[in-house]
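Exercise 3.2. Students should predict the tertiary structure of the chain below and write it as structure tokens, then compare their answer with the key that follows.

Predict this chain's 3D structure.
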Amino acid sequence: MKRKGNTALLLLGILLLILLLIGAERIFAVPFHRGNLISSTEELSVRITEELTKGNSTFQTYVNGLSEEELVAINKSLDGFFGHVSTYTVLRRVNAEVLLVSFDLEVSDNYYVYQKLVHNKEIENNQPAELLALKVQEVINECQAETDYEKVVKYHDYVVSHTEYGFLTGEDERLSYTAAGALLRGKAVCNGYAEALELLLLCSGVETQMVVGTTDEGNHAWNMVKLEDSWYHIDATWDDPLPDTGEDILHVYVNVSDEVMGKTHVWNQSAYPECGDMKYNYYEQSHQAFDSFNTFKAYVLEEMKQQNRIEVMVKDAGQIEYDCGFVVKEGGARSVSWQSYEGDTYMVMVIEVD
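Answer key:
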């Protein structure tokens, strides 16, 4: 009789365990497996970006080892192009490390513009997105670029020449961080420059992404673009001279490598594609890149016959001092001034002749 009692208790225990498992399956509506377990802010940022790219306004996932502080600050890890996290809720604590979290997302106007111009999906009840879509299409039509490289240069030049760096005032201040600030209001900070350039490129079929990082001046945003099989950095904000000079556009950061960008910019390189060459660098493609003083000098003397502002890149500045006094002595100019950007093996010079 004693054994029968033990057997009955064992069967009862098994039944209770089955019922608990059934209940747990209902509680954990989100599958708990390795593919839905996120263990770093980088992984969470990628997942949020994927959901925003699909236009989703909410999703749930398990997070492992992420603190409340990291969840609160997650938007700092996002480029924000397609939107951001508006709120999050911890639905359940599985154990000391694992949480089931629900994220509410705010999809940006950029998403609706992209869907309209690329996938021909109508924008409903969103006038700001409609206006931005019209402007993006207008710029694309105006620039008349054919190759992907031409699109990069022309859209870069448009954003730089039509945007003043700074903050809008009043209720419009938030637009300073957006493509709308740059393209519709003509004023933005780095995030707005980067969003505007990415939106133009994406809607033209060029593969690109925003980069979130830092410089000596603090947090910063710029772009990467893929041309053929290689990725390149492009920073429209840093190519807009201060104070604003309108049409005097720099091309210092148009299609540069990690090596060049790394001298002034810092980013999580493991989270982005490698930018390994300079084939589509602006100066290389425009035949304005020189590796000897003599060829540089001959080019400048010839160009100054037709223009008073010359932009070139020299590769051997560490070995040779590039003095532009010859513009006055041999070129007959009344005066000359020049500025240099970057370092020894990649130095951009802007020469202004009077």
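Discussion points: The two ends are 112 Å apart (CA to CA). The mean pLDDT is 89.
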